[in-house]
TrEMBL record:
Coiled coil: none annotated. Residues 425-648 form the Cullin family profile domain. Transmembrane segments: none annotated. It comes from Paramecium pentaurelia. GO terms for biological process: ubiquitin-dependent protein catabolic process. GO terms for molecular function: ubiquitin protein ligase binding. Belongs to the cullin family. This is Cullin family profile domain-containing protein. Pfam families: Cullin, Cullin_AB, Cullin_Nedd8.
Amino acid sequence: MSKKIEGTEKQNQYQQKLQKIYNQCQTATKKIRLGLLEGCEIKISNKDIIYIFDAIYALTNEVGNAQAYKNSTKLQNNNRVEKVDQELIQYFQDILNEFIADIYQRLNEFSGEKESVLQIVSKTYHDYKAYSYWLYKMFYYLDKFIMPQVGTTLCSTSLKLLKDGYFDKCNKLILNTILQFIQETRKNGILLNKQIKQLIQLYSVMGSKEVELKYMKEVGEYDYICKKQEDAQRFYKEQFQSHLLTETSKFYKEEIDNKQKFTTPEFVNWGNSIFKLELNMCIECYPKSQQAIENKLKIILVKDQAARLVDSPTGVGYMLQYDKTDELKQLFSFIYRTKECITHIAKAYQNFFEQQGQLINNSIEQELQQIKDGRQMHEAEIYFTRMLEVMEKAQNILKNQLQDEPEIQKSYSGAFMLVINKNEKSPIWLAIYTDIIIKSDKGVNEMETDKRLSKIVSLFQLLYQRDVFFRHYQKFLSNRLLNQQIQNIQLEKQLLQKFKGETGTNVLTQLSSMINDIEQSNRFASDQQINKDTKFDLNVFLLSQGCWPITSIQDSIIKPLQIQHVLENYEKMYLEKHNGRILTWCFNMGQGELIYKIQAEKYYLNVNTMQMIAFLLFNQGVSFSIKNILELTKIDKIDLENSLIPFVCMKIISRDKQDIEDFSDENEILKLNMSFNNRAKKMKILPNPKMQPKRISKVKEQNQEELQQMEQINKQREFVVDSQLVRLMKSKKTIKHHELLENCQQMISIFKPDILFIKKRIENLIEREYIRRDEKDWNIYHYLN
């Protein structure tokens, strides 16, 4: 009986102490609430907080000791003793629920006024965190030793109570209030009220199950710190961000519909202002949604509008046409936010410069009368000068306005590659243009020279038929190397080195050999002192057979006595130095300078070797029949026409027939014009098409020669493709059809083989038993060892 009485007394004591703690908490919380309500400093001392803390500590410690004693003596459980901890926790919850009920009631009174809702929610959320923080300090002992047994914390309990008793009930009201303020901000362009940030923070923490409540001294605010960001982030996205994105999309789609009449620059300026406004709003109030908002705007403003903006009458084409470079740069920067949309700019850029290039293709014939430096420009020079101007403009725009974007760089190459290769004459014209540029390079500084060569290479990079270009380039290179007046070995090497960086072919080896021949010839002449004891300067070029574009060698021509002895001495000297080699004189390729004296005047005539041989005959007499000249020189009749008619045209030799009539009558007499006089003392008498008879056979010969050249090129192409196909098959052993085609195309740089051409070569290799088809799958090939 005494034990039962003793237990009842203990219960009463516990109850009294609990009530005392509750009363002390009520007194303290009234002070806290009063301070929060008035917005002034909370007038509660640490002494009051410590007093409550000590009371809770003493009670829970006393209850804990009693419980331990009962467990050790195995006395009957006293349920009331065990419930002291729960009652303390309940006190904590009741005090918070009372506060929550008050703030919810205040909110309901102004639910129809968004300004009031904004202020009340912002203020009450701040007050609740402060209120919870002070209670946490009072009940800290519970949080440290009792709450872990329950499986939560006081801070987490505080947040859960707020969510259940306040946030869940007014979530829709809070969300609508936030969205209304955001819409007003977007319409007016004025940044959000900072109190919105407090409301949005609710969504950042309400999904958290574990939080800490801390006082941030730096900003003077209380805040929940989430321990598990995943839960909070999920809740934030579902309850706030998803609605924000939906409203954002809806708002700006309506805005875009109202701005369809905007020009491209106007829309870009408006779009940039939207990105700036939204970025500031995100940074200020909802930074967690910054990336999502930016992505949504990229879709609405950029991705969905890119094609329209680029192709509009004030889009890329207009900007390029009228040099609106600043507007183009702004458009690029705007669309660059979504890289996949750069395709639209790249396509418009390519279309514009394709059109510009095609205009050059179409108009080149109308511009053949242009004059430069006192001479009529060749159509190749006109064509590539204009093309380079357009390419330079495109390149400057690409670099300065379009940031050298790789995709647009491809469009640049694609545009000019298409245009230049549409012109069938491009490979030939580029060889001619290169020849003109190199010949005009004298007196130009190294930097300018390198710039010119780089332009030639940039054009070369765009060619499909590089083998055709090299065939013609080789002829022009031959003429330049064999003419000492325009010969520039160093420049030729420099250009050749640039070509090697673009394509590695046997042709380049031949070109290098040609330059090497000239260098060796010059060294041999210098070492052997060739010109010593001779009456005239002799320059001999030793050309390796097979490297030079020599179509025919006319070695049966009768050498004039004036040079025969010198040539024989040279031949003897060379063969002594290089025993076993064979020398053949190519009189149809050399050049020389004749000194022509008449009437006390001296003229310097620049002629080729056959002209020199034919004209030297007139040292023996003032007139000769054509038949006599043919017999005395053994020069081919057509070559003789080409050689002597320029003398007739320049009035050095006179004839009874028209100047450029052919030598059909071999009995016709050619005479020296003894009254010849000319102001120019140096004259070029070299054969040219304007000083040649019109021959039907000549046109046929040219056509036949072109056909032969193309036939040779096709044979070389067949060899190139065959070698690459065999190389691939040898390394792979087995390969699929499409892989073989793709790899073969990628490996060939000297020309661009089409698919049909490669397929024909595959069939040829099958016939020649280099490869075979798979018996079950004809799209698979096997290499035959």
